[in-house]
Design brief:
Blueprint: H1 15-25, H2 34-55, H3 69-100, H4 118-133, H5 151-170, H6 174-203, H7 210-224, H8 233-237, E1 243-245, E2 252-255, E3 260-263, E4 272-273, H9 274-279, H10 289-308, H11 315-328, H12 341-365, H13 375-400, H14 405-414, H15 417-421, H16 423-432, H17 437-469, H18 471-483, H19 485-488, H20 491-505, E5 513-516, E6 531-534, H21 537-552, H22 563-567, H23 570-576, H24 585-606, H25 608-614, H26 623-640, H27 649-666, H28 670-678, H29 680-686, H30 693-711, H31 726-743, H32 751-766, H33 773-784, H34 789-800, H35 809-819
Antiparallel strand pairs: 1-4, 2-3, 5-6
Transmembrane segments: 37-58, 70-90, 363-383, 389-410, 439-458, 464-483
Keywords: Membrane, Transmembrane, Transmembrane helix
Pfam family, one: DUF594
Amino acid sequence: MGFFNESGVNRTCDATLSSFVQNLTSSYTDQRNEASMVAISALMFILAAVFFNLNLFSRLSDVSAILNPSMRLFLSTSLSLFLPVMSYLFSEAKNEGRASYGGDCRTSSGDSSAGLTLRARTILMWMLLVELLRKQADAVLVTGGGKQGYSGTIERASRIAWLGLLVFYNVDGAGRKAVYGIIWVLAATKLVQKVAISEIAKRSSAYGKNPRLLSHYMAQIQEEGHSDSGVIGSELLKTCKYAVMGEDKLEKKDDPRSRRYRLQLKEFTTVVTVGKIWMLEERGRLLDADSKRLCLSFALYKLLRRRFEDLPITDAETRDCRRLMFKGLCSETDTEGGQDPREATAVALFQVVDQELHFLSEYYHSFIPVVLASSFFFVANYILFPVTVWFFCVMTIVLCSNGDVVYAIFSLKTDNSAISVGLMKLMGCLLKEITKPPVLFTLVNLSVTILLLLTVLYEQLWELLIFILSKWLMVSLLSDYAAKPRLRDSAIFTGVIRSIMWLHGRMSHSNLCFKQFDALGLCWLSFLPLHNKAVPKEVKKSIMEYLLKHVDDPHGGPLSNGLSALAKHQLYQSQLSWACESESIAEVILTWHIGTSLLEMECQQLAGKKAKKKGTNLGSNGNGKVATTLSKYCAYLVAFHPELLPDEDEETERVYKAMKKELKVMGASEGMYKAIKRDLMDALRCGCYYLSPARTWYSKEISKLLLNTAGDLPGHLSKGDSHMTVVQKGAVLGKILIKIAKEGSQEDELPVWNLLADVWTELMVYVVPSSGELHVKAHKEALAMGGEFLTVLWALATHTGIARPAMAASLVEDADELQGISRHPACV
């Protein structure tokens, strides 16, 4: 400790501060522990930086109550080891302090002291602050239909109890114990708050028990029937009785005939329905189109939750919802600035379903209690609860000083030198001697503590901001506005809604996106991130129009894997139908993906300058964009999410691995290897797999090899050509598509892209419907990972009852012959 001499720190720091700094660094003068101290300080600095980044930089672009699942897994794993390791280090630091006193735990003044060193107190402070931040790794509610286990709560209560023991048994000094005790009280009350919120939500008919209640509600609504079959658009939406809020307030009466309870719908005024929200526009312009659709999304979220919690959705409900979505929402006319009405309608449709899944994802995975958002919960959780917490903090200060309030206040300053001296002045004294290792360690640890403190404070402010700006609170306020006429006349209440709407309008909102994967480039730098692309409006429009045609045609056949789309292009049907005849959906997807990718590569040179000027290479009306983006997304599903597709996972993986192996063999030629090695540094400097020049070059070379391979294969295939691999079939298909494109190269719009857009749209819709429990579970897990575009389509198909044949037609016919009956293909 001799490095704090008169020529050093004492020139700028008085004697009291110099003595404190000496005590501050005394724990770090033992060279035997230098390695462990450096490691622990470095790891704590990384952990503090992670928490700070999660609470600041990762949230500036989007307000969300959901933490990235990968980061949540990292935090859960790290924090599960944090308390045992830090408890051991605390014990070691405590023993070092006792050893430094020679076994005497009394200060020079004769007072009893536990003799905790600064290092021990710092470790204890880190343990308390990290416990306050731990909730980011825990969801507020737990999945499973409201059946929540208590193991996590017991584990966290054990941690809190252990930390309380460490604080009140080891920390000496009334003021110091009060500071540590206050932080412990904050952690303990946060646990009580989380348990209370979870238990209230689990037992509430508005939250945990809502799916079963809503099933009764929907059954009774369907019993009443509808007499407005000719109404469409906004008028149909105004008649919708889907519950937004308030159904939990309906009185229940037992029905002796069915042994079930019935809701007293005579009290229907308590229920805020979609129709009531839509009719508010007649009473004023407070609600815009986005706000009304938000309430519709919330009502649909409640209906879809039943599917995740093993409750059935009846055929009558799906017919009613299909009419509401396609005859109501899709028939509204609300366009601005010359926008294509069909594109605007498609954007609105997908916005509703995407917001619905956002509600669903936050319900199961939010670490902030936005699910309970309401004006009442705001007062209880963000006003009354903090007041209660402050009362317990004051009581802690008083109890730590044995009831002497004056001494308690005085000791807060005298027993905590960092408070009495001032952190900035202390940091200045430490910076003067930063070249000395003990001072450097102390400065790093002090910085970690300050960073954790700032993160805790920022997190509390950010949680309040997320709550205020959450869609849950907006739906709650709009429901109150619709249910209580007196609030519509309140300037304060309407002003609050307008203010939140104004803030929502100026926030950045995440777009509906999907990943893009090119199989022709999968062998080159495939470990780099996949390209995430916003779903084009043309894709939304194409899918919506296909669904509208499918549900409007009473004589239309079931969904097909592209054959129906080819039937509309009879000129090319005979040449291409073989590509859809496989019973493996993964094989059909990869065959068409390879063919589409080959055409996309060829079209860059097909029409030369004319194509570049007019954009005919990818279709001037967006058909090329529809085909190429859906092609790459479906290939991504085969490669990374086979569990979301209709085929068995093992079958999909087998087909994909076989294709990947064959492409790798083709890409392993000596000439390609030398060129790839030459372009390696360019690709790495680019940093993105889908923007690298090497990847583009590689894909082009693979395309050439595939087309050369196709030249040696038959120009027309049939279902019997099962000996050919997926890659070979894709190469033949690509050759045929390129031939068709060259035949129409004189036209402004290549007809081949129109054909491919129809095929890929139909193929995309074909893979969507699924009712098996494994598929439902897969979509639920996909929500935890951020969601997939396929899950959005699946939610829409679930609501509207869109289905596909359960088995191949031949198998159905064989089963019918065995049973001696004639039946319609079953649907899944």
